[in-house]
Amino acid sequence: MSGFELSGVVLLAIILKYPFFEFGPRYAAATGWSLVEGYRRIGTWALWLFFLLMIVSSVIVQAAIVLFTAFLLQHIVGIDWPLTVYGMLVMGGCGLLLWAGRYRILDLTVKVILVLLAVSTVWAGLVSLPRADFSTLALWPDLGPSSAVSMAFILALAGWMPSALDIAVWNSLWTLAKHRDTGSERSLSISLLDFRIGYVGTAILAFVFVLLGATVMFGAGEEFSPQGTAFSVQLVDLYASTLGEWMRPVVLVAVFATMLSTSLTVIDGYPRALDRCVHNILEKEMPESNAPVGRPYWIALVLLAGTTLIIFTVFLGTLTAMVDFATIFTFMTAPILGYLNLRAVTSSDVAPEHRPGKGLLALSYVGLALLGGTAIIYVASFI
């Protein structure tokens, strides 16, 4: 696999999935409801389908992300405690932040972490830039018999690039939480501007990580371990030996900030979405749009934390397989969530002037066709 062979996959995933992410804050700012209410108004089947997908996804994805973060924290601390202890520290720390400050502390903490992530990642990217061989750029990788790239790997990469489509629902809930906690009026233009700045920034960081992988990891001649502890150490050591020992803390901060910010958003996002689902399922009337999270949120947060610790004992030595499974699952569910988001944002709930334009709709249809078609072909390959 050449250094930049996967650049086209990254770019394609970012473009095709863009509309479905944007529909989250667009729907919330335009209607005052989250996408969960949007699914409910599509039909009870849509609400229950999303709820079941969230239950499965929350268990798999949170465990994979917290597991990787715990590995990195273990490497940073350097004390040989059981991995479950580090997992408890990660989830306990995130849980305390959310309990103490609700959305405000979540928003502030993520912003601080993302600043550290941006500075450290871009710094590492600039240092490694002179080593880049851009002749290896490709719109699509070679999937021939002798290729090191498999279809499963492509789906795993696309599934989490730039993130899972679950984030669209979380963004709609965070949009409402921001308006509630700050007392500001809903503004579609401001909500979309905030989203687009974040999305473009995420896309830039994604390609910086591609650059780092192409210039440092590719051609290193080292076989990377599927075990999280060994892989984490190998990754940081490789950057330090290639770019200089002084780069070790920079790379370590970049990688850990990435996983810590992801852990924090996931630990809040899944319980927040499940809480909203429970209220919509149990209540006959539409829930209050500005209602804060309730008891189901904290129950889901505790249950997911316990499930994650149990999974640690099962998948301890197979981090790569677990992450691949989680990311492929998110890719397979992307067409479903994308379709539901499109149905919600083009419904009568959204005023005509607030609905997506023709260009965005066209991109949505292309995205659904390609994402759905690829998922069907992948499943058919096993039949």
Protein architecture, described:
This protein is 76% helix and 0% strand. The chain has 383 residues and is mostly helical. The protein has a single domain (7-380), classed as Amino acid/polyamine transporter I (Up-down Bundle), CATH 1.20.1740. The longest helix is centred in the N-terminal third of the chain and has 46 residues, at 83-128. The two termini are 28 Å apart. The mean pLDDT is 80.
How confident is the prediction overall: mean pLDDT? 80
Number of domains: 1
- Please state the CA-atom Rg, rounded to the nearest Å: 21 Å
Helix and strand run: HHHHHHHHHHHH
**Major sheet details:** none
**Termini, distance in Å?**
28 Å
Overall shape: it is globular
Short note summarizing the structure:
76% of the residues lie in helices and 0% in strands.
What topology does this entry show?
Elements: H1 7-31, H2 35-42, H3 44-77, H4 83-128, H5 151-159, H6 166-182, H7 188-217, H8 228-243, H9 248-282, H10 295-314, H11 319-345, H12 358-380
